[in-house]
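Here is one chain, start to finish.
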Amino acid sequence: MFEGSFVAIVTPFKDGKIDETALRNLIEDQINNGTSGIVPCGTTGESATLTHAEHDQVISITVDACKGRIPVLAGTGSNSTREAVTLTQHAQKAGADGALLITPYYNKPTQQGLYDHFMAVAQETDLPIILYNVPGRTSVNMKADTVGKLSKAKNIVGIKEASGDLMQASEIVEQCGDGFQLLSGEDGLLWPLLAIGAKGIISVTANVLPRKVADLVALARDKKMDEAKAHHFELMDLNNAMFLETNPIPVKAALWQMGRISSEIRPPLSAMSEKNLETLKICLKKYSLI
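Its structure:
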């Protein structure tokens, strides 16, 4: 179920509230361009500054907009185990197909703490769970041995791996086997991770160029690795542009320039600097996006 190109979709705002019309339009565009699944309420969706009511609203809108055509993998992670359980249970009630849970941030739990946290959530939901390891955001790295132990839980089915460590990713593939879904958490490392056994990606870049990201994954799935590699290098400048500043500042600025959403972003994130915005515009023109 969780293979292919999943988009870490932005949360569009209008006058401080969720822009439901814009969100539904973005989802429809993703479906029409080959995206395999939608991930609402992740880092790119500004989950950290959504209220609980808004969090539930975004997931409910996404489930309704997808209408079972592609799966919804709802971001439900927290640095509080109790809160992560509550958010995951809400996602299950809303009809999500799975839950994406980030490693607890700020607390800096030990490997045992990470294991206990994810097992506690897994025992309180029937949803399939994708783990999310992104030490650059959380200051804690979940090691391959811990992932291997967690993969034995019946509803922990994969990991979004964004450590940037290809050796660690290889160890996860080796320890967890082919039935466990390794998904790239970094657009710039998608092709190398596909080469070592990843089944897809949860992508930021797919917000603006969904078809190309979906095609890259499909080519690798069909063992056309040279063609997939060509797509990788073709996307490199856009992947870099999506991280000119802290995600999701550039991707929301790109979608704004493309006329898809308003420019609103929630504090403490701020609007993109004029210098970087000009660089982003040049890149978007290169890809014929504006």
